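User: Hi! I'm working on a homework problem where we have to compare a predicted structure to a textbook description. Could you give me the structure for the chain below?
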Amino acid sequence: MRITIEAWRQSDHDAAGRFETYTVDDATPEMSLLEVLDRLNDHLVEQDEEPVAFDSDCREGVCGACGIMVNGRPHGPVPNTPSCRQHLRHFPDAALLRLEPLRANAFPVVRDLVVDRSALDRVIEAGGHVGMDAGQATDADGTLVPHDSSETALDFAACIGCGACVAACPNGAAHLFAGAKLVHLAELTYGRQERGRRARAITGQMEHDFGPCSTYGECTEVCPAGIPLDAVAAVNREALRARFRRKPD
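Assistant: Happy to help. Predicted C-alpha cells:
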C-alpha cells in the first residue's frame, strides 16, 4: 500500500520547524507507525537524505518513549494505545499520516519528532519515591498490604510516563501523571510514611512546569495504561490532606 507521510522536521529547539512530505510505496497494513518510520528512514538514507529523528525503545507498549502526535492526536486513533502498537490497519484512512512531536509547552522539541520530557522526571525527583532504611532486605511478608490496596497501587503504577496526557490536555496539565504517582505510593505502607511531604513536593513541581487541569478528560482517552480520572481527583485530595493535617508527614 502507498502511504503519504507529512513529517515534522526541526533541526533543534531554536530552529523553525516545518512539515515535509514523503511517500512510502511498500507499506503493509500489519506495519506499526514506528515500522513505517523505519521504512521511510531506510529510503531517506539510501537517497543520502537526513532520516527523521524519533524516540523508541521497547516497541512493546511498555516504556512510553515512542509518543508522537498522529493526525493531531497523541499516539494515534486507537484509544489507550501507544504509538508503537498503532498499526496501519487501525487507521480509517491510512493514505495520509501527519506526524509531529508531542505538543506541550513543557515538552520542548529536541529534533524532529523527539521532545524533552524531563519535566516529568522532575516531578518524580520531587516526590515520586519512598525513603527506606538501607541494609538487608526485609522478608516479602514482613509488611502486610491488603489485597485491594495492592491491586489499586498496581493499577496506578502502570503509568509509563509517555506524556500523552499532557499533549492531549488543552492546558498542558500533568494531573493524570502526578495523580497516578500519588495514589500508587499512598496505597502502600512504606509510601504512607512520607505521604504529606510527597503531595506537597509533587504538586508544587507539577504546578511549576505544567498548566492547570482543564477537567475535560481528554487525558484518559489517550493514556496507554488506562489510568482513570480518579488520578486527577487524587491530586487535589492529597494536596488538601497535606495542608490540613496537624502533624506533618
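For your comparison, note the following. The chain has a mean pLDDT of 92. The longest strand covers residues 3-9. Good luck with the assignment!
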